[in-house]
Amino acid sequence: MTQQSTGATRDIISDDLKLCGCSQHSHYSFPDSVVDYPRTQNQTNTSGGALSIEYPRLSIVSAEQVLVFCSEDEVVLTDVNVAGKTPYFASDGYLTELSGRKLQGSQILAALPVNISVLGETFKWPPVQREPFSQLPVDATNVDVGFARNSFDFGDGNSIVSVGAALPKLLLLNDGGAMFWVTSCQLITQGTGKFAGARGIQSFAGNSYFPVWPSLPEGQVGVLTRGFKAKIHRCIRVVLKESQVA
């Protein structure tokens, strides 16, 4: 940690803020001083341009590429009470840099099956874990997962599809509303452009807020079927096909 004095105020700056090591992120910045940097001309070579969502300092070897970005999703609970069909959350949205700037032409599509009959289980949280935390057993009570699929079009001719486990939880707030969280860990199944044949992982953590959360299950389902917004941050660790054993 380093300290800088500016007379009336003192800012404490951490080297950890310099995540990626590129020319854009090698300086210190704060949310109130974000600069809208122009995109590089060779952005087709890297998703969103090398200065936007790629963080090489987070990779463990040069063969691994790390993408960190956000998405703004519109989510709707679909196929409720439709005979022969499974209800699911359908998501459609776009990708952004961590600063919030939209990646032009980008799109996120996702699907997560939902068992309406156990919607109340999402309010139940795991029990307090026993020490020592580095040893067994692990009590995974109330940690029930579903399986989701995500598709990322970066808007530059490159795309990635992933599938894996997702864990949703709801938390009632004292203002009468509710926080809805979903976290997920997924495996990359396919891609296009430079990500054709790529392998790796994708993880995300997202949330939505409902100002009023109904007390009855019927009302809760109604809120979800009307649709809602979600803000999600995501990380992809990927190895391109040319770096894999043929």
Question: What would you say this structure looks like, in words?
Answer:
It is a single chain. This protein has one helix spanning about 215-225, and strands at about 1-5, 10-15, 65-80, 90-95, 105-115, 145-155, 160-170, 180-190, 200-210, 230-240. It is mainly beta and about 250 residues long. It is globular.
Task: Spell out the blueprint of helices and strands.
Layout: E1 2-5, E2 10-13, E3 64-78, E4 88-96, E5 107-113, E6 146-153, E7 159-172, E8 178-192, E9 199-210, H1 217-225, E10 228-239
Antiparallel strand pairs: 1-2, 3-4, 3-10, 4-5, 5-6, 6-7, 7-8, 8-9, 9-10
Task: Give short descriptive properties of this protein.
246 residues, mainly beta, 10 strands
The count of domains is 1
Report the end-to-end length measured between terminal Cα atoms.
45 Å
Q: Widest sheet: strand order? A: 3-4-5-6-7-8-9-10
Residue ranges: pLDDT <50 for 5 or more in a row? Answer: 1-46
The assigned structural class equals mainly beta
Number of strands: 10
Q: Indicate the radius of gyration in whole angstroms.
A: 21 Å
What series of H and E elements makes up the topology? Answer: EEEEEEEEEHE
Question: What shape does the CA trace take?
Answer: globular
Summarize the structure.
By secondary structure, the protein is mostly beta strands.
